[in-house]
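Budget justification, computational time. The allocation requested in the original proposal was used primarily to generate structure tokens for proteins on the priority list. As evidence of use, we reproduce two of the resulting records. The first is shown immediately below.
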Amino acid sequence: MSPIRLAALAMLAAAASAAAPAADAAGLPPSRVAQQGPAPSYGVEIIVFRVASAPQGEDWDAVPAGRGFGSSATRGGPSPQVLRVLTAADYRLGAIEATLKSSGAWRPVAHAAWVQTAANWGTHAGIALADVGINVPGLSGMVYLERAPIYLHLGFDVRLTAGATYTIREMRSVRYNDKQYFDHPGFGIIALVTPIKRGDAAAPTP
């Protein structure tokens, strides 16, 4: 693992431990899909950030294979829906964004949070960054949240053009309230998925 990635992980761990909400400390179980009803909803929050100095010595315009996406979808089902885009007052990763800004090594590019439904696992039907309020020149792509019989899976197919074009294409299983780091030598994404229960402040307005 490169020094850039090690530094990012160390920074993420320090900021996360300093700002971890009570739900994290309680050690919630894996995201086993035990909610009742046809369309459970989830809160998703992401920070996209880039390195202050572009990495050298490799063809970053090459698009990597999509780790964790598997074969094309055959399962079908409803497409994911954005139910509500949240405001900065609802953000849970603010301390991490502040740490990135103060580091001098990283530059936050976008920060957004929203409530959505999830697609079926393997559908590979995503939500565009623009649909959750991210309209940053040079930044584009899709966010994928899919429900398997046991676990949730979160994925990104995101490109950042800053001199070269950097691409993150990865999907992985995630736990509720467990901060995830999707990494690339040129930029990164920190993500958090939380379950939305009826009556939660972050739940969609009826």
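The second record produced under the same allocation is shown here.
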Amino acid sequence: MPRRLMAILVLALLLAAVPTAAQAKGATAANISGGGPGGLPGGPIDITGDGEPGSGTGLANLAEAAGMWALLFEDGQPGNLASAPASPRRGPRYTITWTFPNGAGTEDKVRQSVWPYAAGGPITYLAPGQKVLDTTTEGGWFRAADNLRQSLISAGLPDRPALTAPAPAPAAPAPATPAPPPSPAIWPWVAAGIGLLVLAAAVAVARRRSPGGVGAS
């Protein structure tokens, strides 16, 4: 085989063995912004590197902690939520903009909302319909572990503890059972009956003693 053809064949095999940006699933960058009026004190935070799932890099670990892989590729994994959590205390919201190389030689930007200090654990939300890797996101909510808050603090977010859930409202006391209506008093009727008997007896005695009355001589 000619040397030129052999070199071309070896080069083709080497290129096929190396994952290209179009074949990779991982992000190549993440931009963290937001946090309320004025945003982050030092401005948006940029993280770059190899974000391939399982690579163990800071970017890949951040994406895994934020639930990106669970929401994009592992539907139904622990942490996925069917609807927005009812936690009334979420704290400031941040936006992570992930950069994914696509097969067209350009980049897809996927935005994810993050509440790192939420009571009960960090919460993330991925909006549906975002273009990424020749498809679109289905979206969803994700309840992350506290390591997401710690990772974001290490990246430059304010060092704050997680919020505490509000104390449950005390249970309302059971309504008191209404007392039965008082029974009508009997003694007034008894007294009235006795009075009538006494009156009748007195009248009878008076008739007997009066002249011409019953029993008079």
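A brief technical remark on that second record: Residues 20-155 form one domain.
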